[in-house]
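Recall from the previous lesson that a structure prediction takes nothing but the amino acid sequence as input. Here we apply that procedure to YkgJ family cysteine cluster protein from Pigmentiphaga aceris. The sequence below is the only information supplied.
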Amino acid sequence: MTQPCLDCGACCATYRVSFYFGETDDHLHGVVPEHVTIPISPYLVAMRGTENTPVRCVALAGEVGKGVSCDIYAQRSTTCREFDAYSEACHRARQHHGLPQLPPL
Ligand code: SF4
Ligand code: SF4
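The prediction returns the following tokens.
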């Protein structure tokens, strides 16, 4: 999480966070703890808590919009690593939680 993310967490409580099942730690080279994921298709898993509504990733600690952290930060999926703060999807997630758009960099 980048600096603005530490006071946010909106994306972790808005979107289904899915990724290739080979990223879980029951596969060679996988790092995401398997027990915090759930299968959603033959080749995809999702972070538990993001497969249904209301969405909230089980690894998200804290209060959205106040102060958050990721319990598996070093082991998070590529989907999480590639999600960009300041992107349109970021703006939409923040809006969904009643948070203002991040100011331009
Ligand atoms: S919605 Fe944007 S600012 Fe908030 S945690 Fe996600 S990337 Fe960071
Ligand atoms: S694993 Fe961490 S960064 Fe990814 S959605 Fe869950 S709380 Fe957010």
